[in-house]
Amino acid sequence: MAGVVMDTTERKMVEERLRQSEKMEAVGQLTGGVAHDFNNLLTVVTGALSMIARAPDRPDRVARLAEAGLQASRRGADLTSKLLAFSRRQMVRPEVVDPNRLLEEFVPLLRRAAGETVAIELDLAPDLDPARVDPGQLEATVLNLVVNARDAMPGGGRVRIETRNARLSAAELADMPEVAPAAYLQIAVGDTGTGMDETTRARAFEPFFTTKEVGKGTGLGLSQVYGFARQAGGHVRLLSAPGQGTTVEIYLPRSEERTPVRHAEDRAPPREATGGEVVLVVEDEPAVLDMAVESVRELGYGTLAARDAAEALEHLQSGERIDVLFSDVVMPGGVDGIQLAERARRLRPDLRILLTSGYSASVVGHEIPKGLPLLLKPYVREDLAAKLTLVVGESNAPKESALQVGP
Questions:
Q1: Which of 269, 273, 295, 370 could form a disulfide with 300 if both were Cys (CB 3.0 to 4.6 A apart)?
Q2: 377 Cα distance to chain centroid
Q3: Strand 246-253 and strand 182-191: pairing?
Q4: pLDDT tens, position by position, 204-260
Q5: Where's the PAC domain (predicted)?
């Protein structure tokens, strides 16, 4: 018995060391990939800014370098977005959507991304159930799959996008105990490409794993797909074999809610302030606070600045004019942006609220209440202008009940 216990203990220790080794290898691969891509992007940004600083009197050159820096920054934002999606920590704004309608509206962009040599076919079930997901994340997921399919068909081919309702049993999910048997809707994206061997298929969802040449892909496309599905409460299956193409099946929980009817909207373009509106900007990072205040001022708004919720509440309790509270969500001091919005609305019931964040709801500790506009970081002046136009244009602030958070 002593020998059996010793053998069992030793085997468990070996297995634990192996798991730890695999974890460290995955972390090393992840951090190495992040560092490589971000160093490339930072090289572009810092190089462009350095050259602008040395020769600010050459407008054409400044504009070209600034555009290069902005493009690199957008790629960095896309990279962090995919990382957050893989880790299921991305800030999402789920809503009830009709996946069929979303796919039909998205097809023109998919065809442009696929190119002229790739045909896009739709086979959409007319009785498809609605889903409660972030529509932007669903579009990004399908786009990632189409781009991957295009790259797997260098000589051209066909991508088929199918939807159907599916009820998965416990037996079908035996290898995925974390997924509950239930009614799902399936979105499948299949191609006629080269397919994957067993080794590649086993690693396909790993972050930064890619079979493409260096510099041709980040290896985060399928990772984003996996993260989106798991964050939405569903899962992903990958079917592929060499020479037989690849099909990725995404299963999303069906929603009991009905898809809201869309009405044509005549949205006003972003405008600068004309009524002397004042925005209280709340941000704990000094550099970000300065940038936000400067951007708001450029749009013609008056500004007040606060570095935390306590300082913001001092402004709100004074007699100063404040039309909009523009606050970061995650802040030090024990009061986050959502809780600040709740307290601010009690002090000033007609106050407009705009939140901003680069974190997920899991970091904050609760979801962003419905009815509160959210501006995701990083943002540019045009994004801020559009959100402020929306917020200032509201005739009434959201009902106080929409701001209740926590138990």
A1: 273
A2: 10
A3: antiparallel
A4: 777 656 655 544 444 455 777 888 888 888 888 889 889 889 999 999 988 887 765
A5: 1-20
